[in-house]
UniProtKB/TrEMBL annotation:
The lineage of its organism: Bacteria, Bacillati, Bacillota, Clostridia, Eubacteriales. InterPro entries: DUF5688 (IPR043743). This is DUF5688 family protein. Pfam families: DUF5688.
Amino acid sequence: MFEETFMTTLAEKVREELGGNYVVESRVVQKEHATMHGFSIGEKESCIQKIIYLEQACDIMGSLDEKWELGDIDHESVYQEMLAKILVKNYQQAGKSPCLFGIENLISWDELKQYVVLRLTSDREYAKQYLHWKVSDLYAIAYAEKTDCDYSESIGITRKLADRFHVTEEDVFSIACENTEKNTILVSMTGALDSCFCKEPFKDSDNLFGSNCLCDPDEMMYVLTNKNKLFGAAGILLPSIQKRLKDFLKEDFFILPSSVHELILVKAKNCMKVSELEEMVKTVNKTEVIPEDRLSDSVYKIENSSLCVAKD
């Protein structure tokens, strides 16, 4: 969408807005299911840089394409200057947030490992950037997430980062699985729907994995997620979680990828055909789920302790 000359010129305008003590470099960043254009901005003497995305600035201004229909270069120059001011403002606002994973804060693996968990994605190019393994038509990646009050920050665990702390891929995924298991919960569909109206994490009392909880024979669907409602779909990969689900449900079930944040578990008995479930998942993904939260259009099941695509 954005030509190299446009990005270069805009980077220079951002640099002029900030002053000579800043480094501004254009970047193309592969996000999950999307390619974003942005600028890596930071002070020259600092090892910390923040990426500010051009698409977000354009959303504030409205469609540039419509504004450039006249083809007047003066118009383009004006809008570049306006974009530069918005990018600088976004950078300054980002600077007010605490840098939870700043380079200077990453002291040791012992300090970081408590935040390392699993995340599921279907985006192969996104997964390739980080330590990952393939599961059916999905990819499990390791990433660290830390929350401080109302601010949350996450970083993917790359080979370079693992090497820095002298830990193996096996070490990373071992602790990621352990932490993911601690946070994974099962809630009723009613409880999940009720929680949509509040931003608070799930309470321990919501978790049906509790020792005194019994499966309601009339309840057809449950939701697997985590306490914070963020990237909770990955819990299904763990054999310990699979066993808990089997012990609780006491029958076979299908897995619908509601989003990267949660999975819907549907009891297989008296359920519709897999092909019908697939159509339902595709429709919901297309009409209700934003692209960056979509996980897959497939329907899954657990077979021999492995996640696999279900078929009729």
